[in-house]
Amino acid sequence: MTHLLRILFISGLALQGCTPPKPVRLGAPIEGYNHTSAAINRFSVNGAGGPNLAPYGYGGGQMCCASLPVKWHPGLTVVVEWEKDPNPYDSVNWPDPPFSDAWRKAAKEHETHYTRHRAVVPVARYEELGLVNVHFLPCNQVAVSAGTTYPGRPDYPFHFPQKMQEPATCPES
Fold first, then answer.
1. Measuring CA to CA, which residue among 135, 122, 131 is closest to residue 149?
2. What is the model's pTM?
3. Domain residue extents for the chain
4. Cα of 31 vs its chain's centroid, Å
């Protein structure tokens, strides 16, 4: 019996030295900022969904969660995919009554003009992982931050105006 107690005691001491490893990645909530006149119908960051965004809109509610490293490192990128409606206010010209056959036909035609995009985007340096902010900019450009600061603060990495106009021509990507 004494031998068994010694083994259990030594095993217990050995386990006390074990602490769970710190997570390498965590899920961070996603929020969006649309700086364009188009609507962002939906978007995702590394496959995790973000809210829809009105033209020149922001927020839309936080969605969960993009998996990112706890510690930022050089070369850190995310994949952002989105669907854009370039003419979000066209529905004012659709036939009445709403949801009639003619209205549905106009909606179906309108959807053919949606565009889908995908970009591998660098993540701005962060000291501590926080909210993932995705900024949609003219010419299908995207900027991403993931720290504990937020737009409007001096320490935020981006200072885009809320309303940005599309140039007549966009640079080749």
1. 131
2. 0.83
3. 21-88+117-145
4. 6
